[in-house]
Design brief:
single chain, 253 residues, 9 strands
Length: 253
């Protein structure tokens, strides 16, 4: 409730409660769909998830450019693990291992089932660097995670509130020397989604917008949330930290 009300100050009480109720209904769909992703055959998957421009990543890779694909906790991001069935080149997904051994084992099995290669956050820079000399690669990253507290953190405005951002978005993109795409996930109906790849930045071209890659990413993610607020993961503590200029208590309080 608090995250929704602060993100949408123009929403009245009725609309906030309605969005909250729709979110929890969608969240229940999310868990059911994870099980479906683990069991559905390729033909059924293609009916439920359509890539509107799956040829775009392959075009960049065929032209010799590495790709960083940025997605968010919107819609059902777990469907993106099926990406290798639609894109010809190998895809690596960055992820943070879960604390629960059972949950980690299950979600890893789901994500690898359709050909996704997983790279855990610890040591990921070395892993990516080791890949680059030999071939062009595509890397998927859920980039709206809240990083640990850092006095030198990157702060931007997101959904009417200041947030801290991972420096890794900029650092990984700099290492990869390629193209950044936003994976726009849209929920068509229960259990059915579309994915569209939106170019964010090419580090071989001039950045005329004046925005950092991080700012461009959160701008696109914000557009998705404003279009259908119920499909964002409102329960995670994205806005836990308060900007130092606005805080009178210790971080996170």
């Amino acid at each position: 409730y608090q995250n929704i009300s602060r993100s949408f100050p123009d929403f009245d009480e009725i609309r906030i409660r309605k969005t909250e109720k729709e979110f929890y209904r969608h969240l229940s769909d999310y868990f059911v769909e994870i099980a479906a992703i683990a069991s559905l055959k390729p033909k059924s998957l293609r009916k439920r998830l359509k890539y509107l421009n799956a040829d775009l990543p392959d075009q960049y890779l065929n032209s010799g450019k590495n790709i960083l694909i940025l997605a968010g906790h919107y819609g059902n991001w777990e469907w993106l693990c099926t990406m290798p069935r639609n894109i010809k080149h190998r895809i690596y997904s960055l992820y943070k291992p879960l604390r629960s051994h059972f949950a980690e084992e299950f979600i890893t099995r789901v994500r690898e089932k359709h050909g996704m290669s997983l790279l855990p956050y610890p040591g990921l820079y070395k892993e990516i660097i080791s890949l680059l000399p030999n071939k062009k690669v595509s890397v998927l990253m859920l980039a709206d995670q809240r990083p640990p507290w850092d006095d030198n953190a990157i702060w931007i405005e997101f959904m009417n509130q200041p947030i801290t951002c991972f420096r890794g978005i900029e650092n990984i993109f700099k290492v990869m020397q390629g193209v950044a795409l936003f994976a726009k996930i849209s929920k068509v109906k229960r259990g059915h989604y579309t994915v569209e790849f939106i170019p964010l930045e090419d580090n071989q071209e001039e950045n005329r917008s004046g925005l950092t890659l991080t700012e461009k990413y959160f701008k696109e993610l914000g557009k998705c949330i404003h279009a259908d607020p119920a499909y964002y993961l409102w329960t995670h503590k994205r806005w836990k930290f308060t900007h130092p200029d606005l805080r009178s208590s210790p971080p996170g309080q």
